[in-house]
Amino acid sequence: MRANTQRHFLKLFSAADRAEFSRLDRRKNWLQTTVGKRIRYSRFKKEISQTDLAHLCGLSQSAITNVELDKKDSLFLLEISIILRISFSWLRCGKGSHLIESLCLSDTEIDILQKYRGRPAKQADAIRLMDHTRPIQAQKQSLGERLKARREELAISQSELSRNTGISQTMISALETATKHRIHDVLELAEKLGVSPDWLALGYGDRNAKNIRVTPSDVDFIYLFRRQTRAVQKKIIELLSRR
Questions:
Q1: What is the chain written as a DSSP string?
Q2: Tell me, what's the pLDDT at 12?
Q3: pLDDT (0 to 100) of residue 1
Q4: What pLDDT is stored for residue 75 in this prediction?
Q5: Three-state SS sequence of 182-239
Q6: Domain check: are 61 and 176 in the same one?
Q7: Which of 2, 62, 167, 173 gives 20 to 30 Å between its CA and that of 200?
Q8: Which domain holds residue 173?
């Protein structure tokens, strides 16, 4: 069954694609590739179809198609990097390693990750408890609402934030009213406002997260854990807390 599934998956990629991916594995010349090509390469390596990626990101398949055709540079890239578990800077610019080497984690997530690392015999059970098909959930607050709330919490006007970041006040206003999104602006604003980029862009994770070094296994666990319902998360915590 597994062999049949893999053969079907491989048919989703042309012979030219597969040959290019093989060359990239050898040469690692990522700076000469496009964002769309890096997404397709990552999907190929993770064996994720375009349809499945769209579902897990909570996006339409046409949105994924447009990104792979390099028609959009949007917040979608952050969601795609989360689902494919690849470095956002590598995906967007082709720089550095495709592996995620650090994550912004809340104190609770740090505690859960430490339990996961300390219970190697229970790691497989924890992974099995999780729904691997559950997509990223839409947040009640929009990016603009999170941005405005944090700015007002710090008592910073739009014009002052504009001076501190070099982003025009018009663009900040557009971000707050959800009329326009540019991912590099969101990343710059997250740094200046002292919040996690994932939280500001997607409402994902904790606002005041700490940057923690992680392994690929850690990334797989945390990103999957975040997509679960609270009931499933509670079961996983209980499992990992048992002696």
A1: -HHHHHHHHHTTS-HHHHHHHHHHHHH--GGGS-HHHHHHHHHHHHT--HHHHHHHHT--HHHHHHHHTT---STHHHHHHHHHT--HHHHHH--S-SS--EEEE-HHHHHHHHHHHH-GGGHHHHHHHS-TTPPPPPPSS-HHHHHHHHHHHTT--HHHHHHHH---HHHHHHHHTTS---HHHHHHHHHHHTS-HHHHHH--S-TT-EEEE--HHHHHHHHHHHTS-HHHHHHHHHHHH--
A2: 75
A3: 43
A4: 66
A5: CHHHHHHHHHHHCCCHHHHHHCCCCCCCEEEECCHHHHHHHHHHHCCCHHHHHHHHHH
A6: no
A7: 62
A8: 143-185
Whether residues 178 and 212 fall in one domain: no
Q: Residue 173: give its domain's CATH number.
A: 1.10.260.40
What's the domain count of the chain? 3
Summarize pLDDT for 163-197 with one digit per residue, the tens. 999 999 999 998 898 766 777 888 889 889 988 88
- Write out pLDDT tens, residues 115-136: 999 999 999 999 999 999 998 8
Say whether both 131 and 147 belong to one domain: no
Q: Are residues 214 and 127 in the same domain?
A: yes
pTM for this model (two decimals): 0.78
* Residue 197 lies inside a defined structural domain of this protein: no
